[in-house]
User: Fold Fe2OG dioxygenase domain-containing protein from Naematelia encephala.
Amino acid sequence: MTSNKFNPPAADLPGKPSIPDWVPPALTKEKLDFAKLRTIDLSLVESDDPKVVDELVQITKKAIREDGFLFIENYGVSLEQLHRQFTLAQYLHYNISEEDQERLLFHPEISGKWAGYKHPWGFKRERKVWDGITQFNWYSEEWADYSRVPTCILPFMDEIRAFNEFLSESVNRRILILLSKVLELPENYLWDKVQSHGGPTGEGYYRHALFRPFTEEAEKLSKGLRFNGHCDYGTTTLLFSVPVTQLQIWGQDEVWRYVPYKPGAIVINIGETLEIVSGGHFKATRHRVFKPPMDQINAERLSIVQFNSSVGDLRMTPAIESPLIQREGFADYQGAFREFQKTMASGIPIPTNRQWREIQIAETVNTTDVKRQTIGGDWVMHDGKLMNKREFHGVTVILPV
Ligand SMILES: O=C(O)CCC(=O)C(=O)O
Ligand SMILES: [Fe+2]
Assistant:
């Protein structure tokens, strides 16, 4: 196993330009009803004391079943090392040339991937309403061939690659050990049987995103939404906690709440694959990106994320050898697991993991698309709540707006 302390290549190697540091924006002073997330110290996974590990597994179990998300700390990257990665993300977004924006432009409708550069006019290749959100996304093709990466960031690819290797092989691996233990399975179960491998992010991807303030027009059309409510499709998503308050999580009490800023921490989102593999014992995190509080309305939000993915050729089914599932059966609530079960029961083959993630990316709806983002479009009233209802490969998806 790789070391559990990140040891990146130096920032001042010959040939690397010296670049301006990222300065974290000022925090909100508003008294917000933040989500209360549990925090775990990831370094305790390696403790020699079985009681310590067991306690950690119990906290994780509670967080994952009740909340569907948690914060992790002490995972082996210092605050300074993390801020260096934000510095690189900022540099990419401020310096990507117009030629590279065009040459590396994403094409999600065709590829089912976010690979490449996302322009700030919505989530389709064709420009629609300006949303101020730019991204660069690295998939296996971008890691394998740096001609697919913006020229300005090439001198720093050693640091970005090392960061991603550390996140997948150390951080994500330790989280999957913990989650395998919650299912009472061998500790490498999820890593060996579910997680995709190869390259720094397997079949998953890494993102540098920049959210610039919305225009009045975009705000009106989108009703404050930057990203619609959704679940991620894969195994775990590592979302680095950021000072600009925009990420929201749907609580058990069916209320959207902002996620507070915890410097250096990672918000761990559980993807739909893990909801299905766990027979519903892990709940895929319902989350969205919303407008920030008024005192941050003009702030720029930089976000770096690693999306970990399951093996694309697999069709996910519950790990019924899990003693937890054998003892307690499946959990039953509205979500991917229940919908996959319904589809199977009706005799339609469930999609492969690749089909499942690619169709959802290809068919992402812009938040400013008022024809779709309304009752009579994709929105319905469901048990007294406004929900987004769609169907992919015979599976119904119902998510809070
Ligand atoms: O930037 C963020 O905080 C979240 C983005 C997100 O949820 C996603 O891309 O799936
Ligand atoms: Fe997400």
Remarks:
- The CA atoms of residues 340 and 364 lie 20 Å apart.
- Residues 39-400 form a domain with the Jelly Rolls fold (CATH 2.60.120.330).
- The chain has one domain: 39-400.
